[in-house]
Structure formats: C-alpha cells, structure tokens
Amino acid sequence: MTTTAPLALSRSPTLISPSLPADKRGMVKDPDYWFEDGNIIITATNFHPRSRPCGFRVHQGALFSHSTVLQDLLGRPLQVTDTAYNCAVVHFSESGHNLKCFLRAIYGGIGPNDDLPFADAAALVRLGHKYDVARVYTLGMGSLFPPKKPWSRLLGSGDKAIEAANLFTAIKCPPALLVALYCCTKLDVASLIGGTIRTDGFLETLDAHNMLLCLRAREMFARRRTTFFVRTITLPPQESCKTPSSCREHLRDILPTYADDVRGGFSELFLDWEKDDTICAPCRKFLARREQKFRASLRSSLPELMGVDVKSWDPSRPVVFA
C-alpha cells in the first residue's frame, strides 16, 4: 500500500506578517525556544480564548537549513520591528502548540523512537508537509503508525478522528484517510456534526464531502450489522451444544441491548464471549469465528464501503509514508 510522496504535494497558504500586533496584548516568551542569540521572533496564532499569544526567538539559519519553503518566506530582508531585541518579528498562522512541536523536531528534540502524543505527532506531519521538511514529516508519521501495530493509534484515535481525517485529506494519504473516516463513523452525532477541539484549541470539523461519506457509511454499517446480528441469533445451537435451550435463550436476551453496538462496523459484538461461560464453549467458539469473518469482510471491502479510493488496499499492511 503506497501513498503519494509527501513533499510533492500542494500546501495551504502560509499567513505571515512582518508586524506583531499581538505583542501589545502581552506576548508570552516560550521557555524552551527563546534563545538570546536568536535573530528572528516568531509569534503563533492563538486559538484559546483569554490566553496570550506565544513567541519563539529562534535562529533563521536553523530554519533555512531544513526548509526551502521557510527560506523563501523569510529569506527576504525583514524590517526590525522589535527594537528591544533587535529582531525581525513575524506572525505565523500556526498555533503555539504546533510551532513548538515543529521547533522541537528542527532543533533535534524529537527522535524516531519517541512515543509522542497524538496531537504532537499530528503537528509534525501537518507542518512537516506544509513547510517541506521531510525529517519532521517522517518523525510524525512514524509515531502515528508504529511499525509493530501500524493502525493501532489511528483506530484508537477516539475524539481525534476528525483531526486525523482532515490531516490525511490535506496531505493526500488515502489509506490513512480511509481509516480515519471509519473512526469518524463511530463518533456520537454531536461530535460528528459539530466537530471536536484540538489540543491547541482549534475546532476541527469535517468538510461537506467527508461528512457525507461518514453519514452514508454509518447507515450502511448499521444495515449490515443488523442483518448479520439477526441472522446470527436465529441460527440453531451447535450440534455439540449440551445446553441448547439455555444458549438459545441467551441469544434472544441480548436483543434489547443490541442497539448500543450498531454504530461502526467493527464492534466486537460476539468476540467478547470467547472467554465467557454465559453460553457453552462450542457455541462461543462458533460465534467468535463468525464475528471474525464478518469483521474481516468489512475490513477488506472498507474502501468501497466508505467511498474512499485506495489502490491495492490491504488492511494487514501499514501505510507507506516516505
């Protein structure tokens, strides 16, 4: 499974201004990335209400050595707008959290084996792609897709699923977008429609296209899961079952609670019984095997079910990001 090379993709515009209106409101110096010998001050966009903007005093040379995009943006002569520090000051459209993660990677504060929080890894991917810094991008993707369990972090993204979907839409990574949108189908309606707030305070919402994909998929998953469930609970007990009446009665009893398990296609509806003695061992094993086959069929056909074009989809293989 492959994706388009990240550094060849288009980028969103960078909002940059040679002035610092935020300074009058009380800029907060970042304690880690405010170097007295730095020759440029970068201020971040503030998404948190009632909090002060963050500033970073760093070295143009460090930025230029990693990013030709930043060199083009900042390489022209900049007017010194902060006489107290004798520095040019530029304002970025990025949040303070995202900029700090980016600077950590630029200054060597993040390694390839670091276990980063989801928001930090996403920030590296977002800015590594935007500013064409392959090392930063790769560090972020490597953290989001650990080699041994490449899909585990994305499948467990929870309320960060919308952030993930928007990120992988922006960098044009279809396999990761597919899984992120599937995770979005499992969100409650309020979160799916209204969006979720990132760690840095930014509200992430799905665009109309991705929203439509998720709503259609939720409906489809509910139909498929319902059909599978009804067919399963009406099957006769296994021939080796020694308590057929009890097993049949228990399957009927779970019907009222079934609605809680409809949303999302991969809920482990019957796998939980594998070590449960509520029904007999032969029936348990049969139900677990049936559930596993159902889940495998959904995984293999996920691109068609979600409406996302992924070439050579193989859910057992990790996304190739570099």
Primary descriptors:
322 residues, two-stranded antiparallel sheet, BTB domain-containing protein, Potassium Channel Kv1.1, Chain A, 11% strand, single chain
CATH architecture of the domain at 6-144: 2-Layer Sandwich
How much β-strand is present in the residues?
A: 5-15%
- The total count of helices amounts to 13
* CATH top-level class of the domain at 6-144: Alpha Beta
Mean pLDDT: 82
> Structural class of the helix and strand makeup?
alpha/beta
* CA gyration radius, whole angstroms: 25 Å
CATH superfamily caption of the domain at 6-144 = Potassium Channel Kv1.1, Chain A
Distance between the termini: 12 Å
Order of secondary-structure elements = EEEEHHEEHHHHHHHEEHHHH
Uncertain residue ranges: 1-25
